[in-house]
Amino acid sequence: KNEVEQSPQNLTAQEGEFITINCSYSVGISALHWLQQHPGGGIVSLFMLSSGKKKHGRLIATINIQEKHSSLHITASHPRDSAVYICAARYNTDKLIFGTGTRLQVFP
Amino acid sequence: NAGVTQTPKFQVLKTGQSMTLQCAQDMNHEYMSWYRQDPGMGLRLIHYSVGAGITDQGEVPNGYNVSRSTTEDFPLRLLSAAPSQTSVYFCASSYSGTSSYNSPLHFGNGTRLTVT
Fold first, then answer.
1. Which of A66, B16, B39, B78 has its CA 20 to 30 A from that of A11?
2. C-alpha of A12 from chain center
3. Bridge partner list, B57
4. Cis ω for the linkage preceding A108 (within 30 of 0)
């Protein structure tokens, strides 16, 4: 069965802290997506990875194909980063399976 | 480009009623999909399509029908609504196959459905 495990479920940080969210998946993925969902519902794509590392501003996403693991890092976290972060694995059938999300709250 | 347009934003149904959630995209994406989001469960795949005339079931297909007669549109039909289908529904699209390797997902704004 294709599964995606995400941790932690909830994360609280002080402004400026370095944040790491983890995602593990089973075999056969063609890509790993990181998404952001703010309160009020809209879902935005942050990264799409099939190997290596990508960086956009204060956000960094990495993937280790051998270990079937991806991480999303936020450097110098800010209250506006407060959101739910979701990883999704795209399997070779084009089917997408999502993790349950990590709720991040960054306090000033 | 309008992106992914999902309608309606809100809907209240009585048990047994039927309705169709609309999803349209103008990016020529082959891949379109429907998800439901329930508290504590994350997004779960209902149905997906990799092109016109091709659909497949996801994790939670029961009670829902889809069709893909054009590249642009992927409607989701609830045949006989049940309270268990109360949820927030999202449509998403992207390129498919090898084109998907560098293709982000584009989401609609969601439909909040309540079945009483």
1. A66
2. 16
3. B47
4. no
Using a CB–CB cutoff of 8 Å, tell me whether B31 touches chain A.
yes
Q: Going from the first residue of chain A to its last (108 residues), give the mean pLDDT of each consecutive group of 10, the final group possibly shorter.
A: 85 97 88 90 90 95 94 97 94 82 96
Residues of B in contact with A97 (CB under 8 A): 45, 59
pLDDT tens per residue, range B55-111: 999 989 999 999 999 999 999 999 999 999 999 999 999 887 666 566 789 999 999
User: Structure tokens of B88?
Assistant: 């927030």
Residue type, A32: L
Which chain B positions have a beta carbon within 8 Å of A94's beta carbon? Answer: 31, 48, 50, 96-97, 100
SS3 of B44, please? Answer: strand
Cis peptide before A8 (omega within 30 of 0): yes
Q: Is B5 on the interface with A (CB under 8 A)?
A: no
- A78 by DSSP, 3-state: which? coil
For A96, which of B33, B88, B102 is closest by C-beta distance? B33
